[in-house]
Amino acid sequence: MPLLEVDELTVRFDTPDGVVTAVDGLSFELEAGQMLGIVGESGSGKSQTAMSLMGLLAGNGSVTGNAFFGERDLLTLDRAALDDVRGHEIAIIFQDPMTSLNPYLSIEKQMTEVLVRHQDLSVREARRVAVRMLDRVQIPDANGRIDSYPHEFSGGMRQRVMIAMALLCGPRVLIADEPTTALDVTVQDQILRLLDEIRAELDMAVVLITHDLGVVAGICDRVLVMYAGRVMESGTLDEIFYAPKHPYTLGLLGSVPNPEHAAHGRLPTIPGSPPAMGRPSPGCPFADRCAQRLPECADERPVLHPIETEHLLACHLEPPA
Amino acid sequence: MSAPLLAVRDLTVTYRLPGRGLLGRARRFNAVTDVSFELGPGETLGIVGESGCGKSSLARGLLGLVPVAGSVRLESQELCGLDRRSLRTARRSLPLVYQDPLAALDPRMTVADTIAEPLRLAEPGLTSAERRERVSAIMEKVGLEPAYRYRYPHEFSGGQCQRIGIARALITAPRLVICDEPVSALDVSIRAQIVNLLVGLQEEFGLSLIFIAHDLPIVRHISHRVMVMYLGRTMEYADAELLYTRPLHPYTAALIEAAPLPDPRAARAARHKPLVGDLPSPLQPPAGCPFSSRCPMVQDRCHAERPALREIAGSQVACHRAEERLALLS
Fold first, then answer.
1. Which of B50, B193, B265 lies at the smallest CB-CB distance from A269?
2. Residue A321: inside a domain, yes or no?
């Protein structure tokens, strides 16, 4: 049985311009020890997926569908029950560690709080656990640095602190929302390696949300490609990277320069730009940018269906048998 | 190479910082130290490096927006040491394209006014009809509907705003454009569009580009020559192909290895060791070689003596052990 089972997750926001659907019928399963990459551009709904699972949607947001974590449906939990799960069994880290850390509190204060809250440790025990965790994420001189404040750390070190904090209560699922986007490339490399090691060591499931296909290729097991709130294609790493079927996936992969492209030549591109969320199309949201568009794409929504055991596709070019 | 369009010699950018404490003496630090390069007509120089490497300070230094020493010659004019007035005039031939396209545009100006503004300064004699003509022409060149001329920046997507920024940079028909991280704020599917636009404009107008970025694959694609910077200094400077296929500086090699490849098999095969440690603060660079605190090939000598930039087999490298790497790679 999967650790996390998300079924028809839909997130809507009530805005002055009407109801906006940010995530539209998203389903996936996640096993322990697995890393799932969710790839998408701005407005694809990848971050709102994370927020809805953590019960962190903005006040005007509402969610339907199910997200089973064991017996419990995360989407229907009340505040108290959610607080028990959050930080304890499911943790999240964000893109910018500086805005997620409280600048007025020392790292010790911020790290021990969660241990005292969830695990009834004394402050002294909590400090010991926190130091051990900082050590685990390779922060040098953890026992000394724990008394520092967030601004005294570099960006990479702050993200390590965030990861340590997320791991304190031994969560079974970690959601990482663009964890390396704000970091330099050599530091990104270190943080991705760290996430991979920790996933293996703790047999933890990880949802890695990113816009960067390169990041996914390095460490994920499976990939879900989102566009305008919907899943366009999903599958194993090899299926998505070496046998992509959706024109959007193909376009994304094609537009990344690689040494095989002639230098200074034209890169393959996807014309146009991602759609505004306010006006969802009745058909395929990618239709107006798609070079292989069929007449039915404009007003008939393609169904996500299996083309291999794990390889799912929502495209009229390969309809369900 | 024919006569260079831009020749930069020993460019150093120095900032003054307040001293420690109330009465502390003001401190100085070099964000860019002794950077030299030449850029020919129609060429692209890529500048790569991580935060604090001085790549943006270098761009500002070329424009004389920050205090500089050294020499910057554009065609036959020396820009270093010009007085304010002449510098302002000279800057018109060195437009800059910024990272965040929306933040770089005035939200209260229409697209047409934004694009026409540099033209008003450069060619004040134009009639408004002539100006309108030029604006429409350049909008079409960068892929914007001239019909959108009276719209405001917020009505455009990020990619379109970057097109507006490029149109504004090109309206005065400059021979050189400096692009400071022009695609890093854009969505993946839009980046390739902007790269293609720049390459196309370069071909059409014989434009020279300075392309500053941290995304190595894009820099490789667009650049003829590439400079790798670290803590304000040039680590390696070579032809793009040579630099990427035969990186002589350990930092260049580390940057190339760290760039994530959208190719799972290659990523699995290339299980390299990540660089250790963080970028040092540019205020307190390590003694000796600036990269010595993180270098996998570090020796005692590297801590004691800063390697000079020197020519090795067609590349310029600042590393004591470059010959060893060359022997290893060939």
1. B193
2. no
Residue ending a domain, among A132, A150, A168, is A168
CB-based contact A212 B241, cutoff 8 Å: no
Distance set, CA B93 to CA A102, A208, B176, B197 (Å): 45, 45, 7, 20
Please tell me whether residues A151 and A198 are part of one structural domain: no
Q: Do A256 and B241 touch (CB under 8 A)?
A: no
Place of tokens 């050590």: A135
Do B189 and A252 make contact, defined as CB atoms within 8 angstroms?
yes
User: Does A192 lie at the interface with B, CB-CB under 8 angstroms?
Assistant: yes
State the Cα–Cα distance between residues A303 and A83, nearest whole angstrom: 36
Beta strands in A70-136 (DSSP E): 72-73, 90-93
Q: Any chain A CB within 8 A of the CB of B51?
A: yes
What confidence tens digit (pLDDT) does each residue in B120-144 have? Answer: 998 999 999 999 999 999 999 999 9
Backbone φ, ψ for residue A244 (5° rounding)? -70, 145
* Contact list, B217 vs chain A (CB under 8 Å): 256-258
Would you tell me which CATH number, out of the four given (3.20.20.70, 3.40.1550.10, 3.40.50.620, 3.40.50.300), belongs to the domain B6-94+174-329? 3.40.50.300
Q: What is the pLDDT of residues A161-200, one digit of tens each?
A: 999 999 998 899 999 999 998 888 888 999 999 999 999 9
User: Of A134, A168, A202, which one is at a domain's C-terminal end?
Assistant: A168
CB proximity A161 to B under 8 Å = no
